Amino acid sequence: MSRFNKIINTEKKRSYKLQNPNLFTKYVMILANNSKSISIKPIDITFFCIFTIVGAYYHEIVFSLLQNFYLIILNPLKFIEVYLYPILVSFGLISLYGSLREYDFTFFSTDKFNKK
Amino acid sequence: MQSDKEIVDLCLNDGIHHFEKIIKSYNNYVFGVMMRITAGNIHFSEDLTQMAFLRAMKYLNSYDSSRELKTWLVQIAINCFKNEIKIMNKHVDIEDIAEQQVYENKDDDFFNMIKPLSSTERIIFTLKYVYDYKNEDIAKSLAMNINTIKSIIKRALVKLK
Fold it and tell me: Do A16 and B32 make contact, defined as CB atoms within 8 angstroms?
Protein backbone atom coordinates (compact mmCIF):
# COMPACT_ATOMS: atom_id res chain seq x y z
CA MET A 1 0.00 0.00 0.00
CA SER A 2 1.42 3.37 -0.97
CA ARG A 3 2.16 6.02 1.64
CA PHE A 4 -0.62 8.21 0.22
CA ASN A 5 -3.26 5.49 0.66
CA LYS A 6 -1.98 4.72 4.13
CA ILE A 7 -2.34 8.35 5.23
CA ILE A 8 -5.83 8.61 3.74
CA ASN A 9 -6.97 5.36 5.35
CA THR A 10 -5.60 6.43 8.73
CA GLU A 11 -7.36 9.78 8.36
CA LYS A 12 -10.66 8.13 7.46
CA LYS A 13 -10.55 6.10 10.67
CA ARG A 14 -9.75 9.11 12.81
CA SER A 15 -12.71 10.93 14.37
CA TYR A 16 -12.63 14.47 15.68
CA LYS A 17 -14.77 15.56 18.57
CA LEU A 18 -15.53 18.95 19.99
CA GLN A 19 -14.10 19.45 23.46
CA ASN A 20 -17.53 20.09 24.94
CA PRO A 21 -20.34 19.32 22.46
CA ASN A 22 -23.19 20.05 24.91
CA LEU A 23 -21.80 23.43 25.82
CA PHE A 24 -21.21 24.13 22.13
CA THR A 25 -24.85 23.27 21.32
CA LYS A 26 -26.15 25.51 24.10
CA TYR A 27 -23.86 28.35 23.05
CA VAL A 28 -25.02 28.18 19.42
CA MET A 29 -28.66 28.16 20.52
CA ILE A 30 -28.09 31.19 22.77
CA LEU A 31 -26.35 33.04 19.93
CA ALA A 32 -29.20 32.16 17.55
CA ASN A 33 -31.83 33.43 19.97
CA ASN A 34 -29.92 36.63 20.57
CA SER A 35 -29.58 37.49 16.91
CA LYS A 36 -31.59 40.55 16.11
CA SER A 37 -34.05 40.63 13.26
CA ILE A 38 -35.77 43.54 11.58
CA SER A 39 -39.45 43.28 10.86
CA ILE A 40 -42.17 45.58 9.64
CA LYS A 41 -45.69 44.87 10.85
CA PRO A 42 -49.01 46.48 9.83
CA ILE A 43 -49.15 48.04 13.29
CA ASP A 44 -45.89 49.92 12.53
CA ILE A 45 -47.42 51.52 9.45
CA THR A 46 -50.66 52.29 11.31
CA PHE A 47 -48.86 53.99 14.16
CA PHE A 48 -46.50 55.78 11.80
CA CYS A 49 -49.61 57.33 10.19
CA ILE A 50 -51.16 58.11 13.60
CA PHE A 51 -47.97 59.79 14.87
CA THR A 52 -47.62 61.76 11.63
CA ILE A 53 -51.25 62.96 11.66
CA VAL A 54 -51.26 63.80 15.38
CA GLY A 55 -47.85 65.48 15.05
CA ALA A 56 -49.01 67.51 12.05
CA TYR A 57 -52.27 68.53 13.70
CA TYR A 58 -50.59 69.61 16.93
CA HIS A 59 -47.40 70.83 15.27
CA GLU A 60 -47.42 74.08 17.25
CA ILE A 61 -47.24 72.17 20.52
CA VAL A 62 -44.50 69.92 19.15
CA PHE A 63 -42.36 72.86 18.01
CA SER A 64 -43.00 74.75 21.23
CA LEU A 65 -41.98 71.66 23.27
CA LEU A 66 -38.74 71.32 21.28
CA GLN A 67 -37.95 75.03 21.58
CA ASN A 68 -38.55 75.06 25.31
CA PHE A 69 -36.94 71.71 26.02
CA TYR A 70 -34.15 73.42 27.98
CA LEU A 71 -36.77 74.11 30.69
CA ILE A 72 -36.59 70.47 31.69
CA ILE A 73 -33.24 71.32 33.32
CA LEU A 74 -33.75 74.98 34.28
CA ASN A 75 -37.32 74.70 35.49
CA PRO A 76 -38.63 71.14 35.44
CA LEU A 77 -41.82 71.91 37.34
CA LYS A 78 -42.77 74.62 34.87
CA PHE A 79 -42.00 72.29 31.97
CA ILE A 80 -44.21 69.52 33.39
CA GLU A 81 -46.99 71.98 34.17
CA VAL A 82 -47.04 73.33 30.62
CA TYR A 83 -46.43 70.13 28.67
CA LEU A 84 -47.96 67.48 30.95
CA TYR A 85 -50.89 66.73 28.66
CA PRO A 86 -48.88 66.25 25.39
CA ILE A 87 -46.23 64.20 27.25
CA LEU A 88 -48.88 61.89 28.74
CA VAL A 89 -50.59 61.48 25.37
CA SER A 90 -47.23 60.64 23.73
CA PHE A 91 -46.36 58.06 26.39
CA GLY A 92 -49.86 56.59 26.13
CA LEU A 93 -49.57 56.22 22.35
CA ILE A 94 -46.07 54.71 22.57
CA SER A 95 -47.19 52.22 25.25
CA LEU A 96 -50.22 51.24 23.19
CA TYR A 97 -48.00 50.84 20.12
CA GLY A 98 -45.48 48.71 22.02
CA SER A 99 -48.11 46.39 23.49
CA LEU A 100 -50.06 46.01 20.23
CA ARG A 101 -46.89 45.23 18.28
CA GLU A 102 -46.40 42.07 20.31
CA TYR A 103 -49.75 40.67 19.19
CA ASP A 104 -49.76 41.57 15.55
CA PHE A 105 -49.14 39.64 12.36
CA THR A 106 -45.77 40.10 10.76
CA PHE A 107 -45.70 41.82 7.40
CA PHE A 108 -42.02 41.48 6.59
CA SER A 109 -39.22 39.93 8.61
CA THR A 110 -35.55 39.10 8.19
CA ASP A 111 -36.13 36.42 10.80
CA LYS A 112 -37.21 33.65 8.43
CA PHE A 113 -37.56 30.79 10.84
CA ASN A 114 -38.61 31.95 14.22
CA LYS A 115 -42.27 31.37 14.82
CA LYS A 116 -43.51 32.50 18.17
CA MET B 1 -36.37 8.40 16.57
CA GLN B 2 -37.14 11.44 14.42
CA SER B 3 -35.66 11.76 10.95
CA ASP B 4 -33.75 14.86 9.88
CA LYS B 5 -36.66 15.91 7.67
CA GLU B 6 -39.09 15.67 10.58
CA ILE B 7 -36.81 17.77 12.79
CA VAL B 8 -36.43 20.39 10.06
CA ASP B 9 -40.22 20.51 9.66
CA LEU B 10 -40.58 20.91 13.42
CA CYS B 11 -38.07 23.77 13.37
CA LEU B 12 -39.97 25.53 10.62
CA ASN B 13 -43.44 24.97 12.07
CA ASP B 14 -42.98 24.85 15.80
CA GLY B 15 -39.87 26.89 16.52
CA ILE B 16 -36.16 26.93 16.07
CA HIS B 17 -35.48 25.41 19.51
CA HIS B 18 -35.85 21.98 17.84
CA PHE B 19 -32.65 22.75 15.90
CA GLU B 20 -30.72 21.76 19.02
CA LYS B 21 -31.23 18.09 18.03
CA ILE B 22 -29.59 18.75 14.64
CA ILE B 23 -26.62 20.46 16.27
CA LYS B 24 -26.20 17.56 18.71
CA SER B 25 -26.30 15.04 15.86
CA TYR B 26 -23.92 16.75 13.47
CA ASN B 27 -21.62 19.05 15.47
CA ASN B 28 -18.77 16.52 15.55
CA TYR B 29 -19.22 15.62 11.90
CA VAL B 30 -19.04 19.25 10.70
CA PHE B 31 -16.19 19.91 13.13
CA GLY B 32 -14.29 16.93 11.66
CA VAL B 33 -14.63 18.27 8.12
CA MET B 34 -13.43 21.68 9.26
CA MET B 35 -10.50 20.17 11.16
CA ARG B 36 -9.31 18.48 7.98
CA ILE B 37 -9.83 21.51 5.77
CA THR B 38 -8.04 23.80 8.20
CA ALA B 39 -5.26 21.20 8.65
CA GLY B 40 -5.94 20.75 12.35
CA ASN B 41 -6.65 24.26 13.59
CA ILE B 42 -9.03 23.51 16.48
CA HIS B 43 -10.12 27.06 17.30
CA PHE B 44 -10.72 28.03 13.70
CA SER B 45 -12.64 24.77 13.15
CA GLU B 46 -14.82 25.42 16.20
CA ASP B 47 -15.58 28.93 15.02
CA LEU B 48 -16.45 27.70 11.54
CA THR B 49 -18.69 24.95 12.93
CA GLN B 50 -20.48 27.50 15.05
CA MET B 51 -20.89 29.89 12.11
CA ALA B 52 -22.18 27.06 9.93
CA PHE B 53 -24.93 26.10 12.39
CA LEU B 54 -25.98 29.71 12.91
CA ARG B 55 -26.18 30.22 9.17
CA ALA B 56 -28.04 26.94 8.74
CA MET B 57 -30.63 28.10 11.26
CA LYS B 58 -31.03 31.40 9.46
CA TYR B 59 -31.55 29.81 6.06
CA LEU B 60 -33.30 26.64 7.16
CA ASN B 61 -36.35 27.38 5.04
CA SER B 62 -34.18 27.20 1.92
CA TYR B 63 -33.08 23.65 2.77
CA ASP B 64 -34.02 21.15 0.06
CA SER B 65 -35.24 18.06 1.92
CA SER B 66 -34.30 15.80 -1.01
CA ARG B 67 -30.65 16.36 -0.04
CA GLU B 68 -28.89 14.86 2.92
CA LEU B 69 -28.87 17.30 5.82
CA LYS B 70 -25.24 16.68 6.75
CA THR B 71 -24.15 17.39 3.15
CA TRP B 72 -26.04 20.67 3.28
CA LEU B 73 -24.43 21.56 6.63
CA VAL B 74 -20.98 20.73 5.26
CA GLN B 75 -21.69 22.91 2.22
CA ILE B 76 -22.57 25.83 4.51
CA ALA B 77 -19.47 25.23 6.64
CA ILE B 78 -17.29 25.20 3.52
CA ASN B 79 -18.83 28.49 2.38
CA CYS B 80 -18.07 29.94 5.82
CA PHE B 81 -14.48 28.71 5.49
CA LYS B 82 -14.12 30.27 2.02
CA ASN B 83 -15.54 33.58 3.24
CA GLU B 84 -13.25 33.64 6.24
CA ILE B 85 -10.23 32.79 4.10
CA LYS B 86 -11.16 35.59 1.70
CA ILE B 87 -11.23 38.05 4.60
CA MET B 88 -8.09 36.62 6.23
CA ASN B 89 -6.11 36.44 2.99
CA LYS B 90 -5.88 40.20 3.12
CA HIS B 91 -3.96 39.87 6.38
CA VAL B 92 -2.85 36.25 6.89
CA ASP B 93 -1.60 33.56 4.53
CA ILE B 94 -3.44 30.22 4.30
CA GLU B 95 -0.28 28.41 5.41
CA ASP B 96 -0.16 30.57 8.54
CA ILE B 97 -3.62 29.32 9.47
CA ALA B 98 -2.34 25.75 9.36
CA GLU B 99 0.72 26.85 11.35
CA GLN B 100 -1.62 27.71 14.21
CA GLN B 101 -2.34 24.00 14.44
CA VAL B 102 -2.95 22.95 18.00
CA TYR B 103 -4.35 19.46 17.54
CA GLU B 104 -2.10 17.11 19.43
CA ASN B 105 -1.66 13.88 17.56
CA LYS B 106 1.53 12.06 16.76
CA ASP B 107 0.00 10.65 13.61
CA ASP B 108 -0.63 14.02 11.96
CA ASP B 109 0.62 13.05 8.52
CA PHE B 110 -2.60 14.13 6.84
CA PHE B 111 -2.33 17.68 8.12
CA ASN B 112 1.28 17.92 7.00
CA MET B 113 0.39 16.38 3.68
CA ILE B 114 -2.33 18.90 2.78
CA LYS B 115 -0.42 21.96 3.96
CA PRO B 116 0.98 22.80 0.48
CA LEU B 117 -2.53 22.84 -0.99
CA SER B 118 -4.59 25.98 -1.50
CA SER B 119 -7.89 26.36 0.37
CA THR B 120 -9.98 25.18 -2.61
CA GLU B 121 -7.66 22.26 -3.25
CA ARG B 122 -7.85 21.25 0.40
CA ILE B 123 -11.65 21.32 0.37
CA ILE B 124 -11.94 19.25 -2.81
CA PHE B 125 -9.16 16.85 -1.83
CA THR B 126 -10.65 16.22 1.62
CA LEU B 127 -14.17 15.69 0.31
CA LYS B 128 -12.98 13.37 -2.44
CA TYR B 129 -10.47 11.21 -0.61
CA VAL B 130 -11.49 11.31 3.06
CA TYR B 131 -15.28 11.57 2.70
CA ASP B 132 -15.51 9.67 -0.62
CA TYR B 133 -17.66 12.30 -2.31
CA LYS B 134 -18.21 11.84 -6.03
CA ASN B 135 -16.93 14.54 -8.37
CA GLU B 136 -20.55 15.42 -9.27
CA ASP B 137 -21.46 15.90 -5.60
CA ILE B 138 -18.43 18.11 -4.99
CA ALA B 139 -19.26 20.16 -8.08
CA LYS B 140 -22.84 20.55 -6.87
CA SER B 141 -21.82 21.45 -3.33
CA LEU B 142 -19.25 24.02 -4.40
CA ALA B 143 -21.26 25.31 -7.38
CA MET B 144 -18.35 24.57 -9.70
CA ASN B 145 -17.96 22.90 -13.06
CA ILE B 146 -17.15 19.18 -12.88
CA ASN B 147 -14.18 19.63 -15.23
CA THR B 148 -12.79 22.31 -12.93
CA ILE B 149 -13.11 19.88 -10.02
CA LYS B 150 -11.24 17.20 -11.98
CA SER B 151 -8.42 19.58 -12.93
CA ILE B 152 -8.12 20.84 -9.32
CA ILE B 153 -7.85 17.24 -8.08
CA LYS B 154 -5.15 16.53 -10.68
CA ARG B 155 -3.25 19.68 -9.67
CA ALA B 156 -3.52 18.77 -5.98
CA LEU B 157 -2.21 15.26 -6.61
CA VAL B 158 0.75 16.67 -8.55
CA LYS B 159 1.54 18.98 -5.63
CA LEU B 160 1.37 16.09 -3.19
CA LYS B 161 3.71 13.83 -5.15
Answer: yes
